[in-house]
Amino acid sequence: MTLRTAVVATYPPRHCGIAAFTRDFVRATGIQSVVALHAPGLPAIYPLEVHHQVRRDVLLDYRTTAVGLADDGVELVSIQHEYGIWGGSDGSNVLDFVRALSMPSVATLHTVRRTPTPAQHRILVELCAAVDGVAVMSHAAATLLARVYGVSPMRVSVIPHGVPDLARVDPELVKPGLDLAGRAVILSFGLIGPGKGYELAIAAMPAVVEAIPNALYVILGATHPDLLLREGEAYREDLVARAAALGVAQHVRFVNRFVGQAELGRWLQAADVFVTPYPNLEQIVSGTLSYAMGAGKAIVSTPYEYAVELLADGRGILVPPASAPHLTAAFVDLLRDRAGRNRLGALAHQFGRHMVWSEVGAAYSALFDRIARAGRGPRVPSAGRPFAPPLLHALPAGAPNA
Description:
The chain is 41% helix and 15% strand. The chain is an alpha/beta fold.
């Protein structure tokens, strides 16, 4: 019999990384019911698979929805966790929701901070104690859970971020359809906002253009909806002004829209080089980097934790943080070396076979079945303090552990 499962997360038409992840997650696992975490000020029209909406800032919604899932016959609940998508201070309402559930639950953690605030530490510790299983997307995250939060590695499964199964193609075949013919294309994509390091990549472009006159840096994506509500397009306008001041306005293209998966695939296939110049070296997962791996791109990145793990063993190029000259050198070297780009792309694509949604969906389904068969056990006491973990299972980085 099919396990009746519900997932709780943000969901399209909301434009955010976790909403996009959850849409693909639902398709890959066959989940029948979605509980949408609904932020104020956004349209409340959802597709048919959304059976419940939880108003983010209404505490009563969390408890009544948790009880309602039992009435729906739901046998297991998948919780997508990132502090900002749940209501309450630091997303504390997730604890009210989980504690009101009567069926087993599994939390997928999209953020595991090395240096959390005391409140963030408490919430994550209590969440991991309240659920029946925990999934993270990297070995670095699993290690942090043990060392910083005191979560037993025996309760944690490492399942990679899912990616589309994109074929590797010659970028020159795709470029004309995106008005990129004759350009050497460097790509970043994702919701636009501070903390992505776009300033660093733009700062690198004058020297790149001097060496590669047809170079073009494409920043693909709409402004993050929360930032748009607070500040409008001020941040994007600042980036545009930076490019103009550096004399590279014709070599930095902003594609100001949220693109669907099919169009995103074309932009990835058209790119010669992909870059994630993030300044936050503690970042434990990046959906954009995952997609670039799956698409078989030659990747340049700052050495944040997720990039160090995915680009190990020569699968990409890591450059020092906040160093435009190092970023320039990496871009120029790759744009001049077609064979080198192909070699890196092939290694990334091969590694990315662990990450395609068919593999990831199967891993989650196996985890859910195992947790459901075990039933809802006694709640694990919250850890009083962090502890040094035993060795984790020796899996290839990014391989499913369910």
